[in-house]
Amino acid sequence: MHKCPSCGSEYGYDDGVAYNCPECGHVWTDESLKEEEIKDAVGNVLTTGDDVTLIADVKLGKDTIKRGTKAKGIRILDDPHNGHDIDGKVDKFGSIYLKSSIVKKL
C-alpha cells in the first residue's frame, strides 16, 4: 500500500507502471513525487501557467502593487530567489518574482 499524495488515502496501489488511488483516482510515480509542490496562501497547488491574485499589498521601491491585483501566467521557479518561488506578469509592472504565500489561485 502507498499513501496517496493527493487525498492521503492509505489504499494506493502499484499497477506495475504507476501508483493509483482507488478513492480519488490520482495516479503518480516516484519521479513525480520528487517535484516539490508549491501551494498558494490557502493550500491550492500552483502550476506553471496558472493565474493568481495577490492577497496583500506588495511594495516595489516607491510603488505598491495593491491587494487583488492579478498575476497572469505564473511560472514555478526551479531555484527560488530570497523566498520568491513564482514569477508572474503584472499589468504596469511586467514580470516580477512573488512569494506563493501571498497569492491565491484563480
Automatic annotation (TrEMBL):
InterPro entries tied to this protein:
YjdM (IPR004624), YjdM_C (IPR013988), YjdM_N (IPR013987)
Q: Has the keyword Hydrolase been applied to this entry?
A: yes
> Which keywords does the record carry?
Hydrolase
Q: Pfam families recorded for this chain?
A: YjdM (PF03831), Zn_Ribbon_YjdM (PF08274)
Tell me the ranges covered by the Protein YjdM C-terminal domain, including all copies: 38-105
Protein YjdM N-terminal domain location is 3-29
Single GO MF annotation: hydrolase activity
Q: Which family does it belong to?
A: Belongs to the YjdM family.
Protein name stated in the entry:
Phosphonoacetate hydrolase
Organism the protein comes from: Halolactibacillus alkaliphilus
Which lineage do the record's taxonomy fields give for this organism?
A: Bacteria, Bacillati, Bacillota, Bacilli, Bacillales
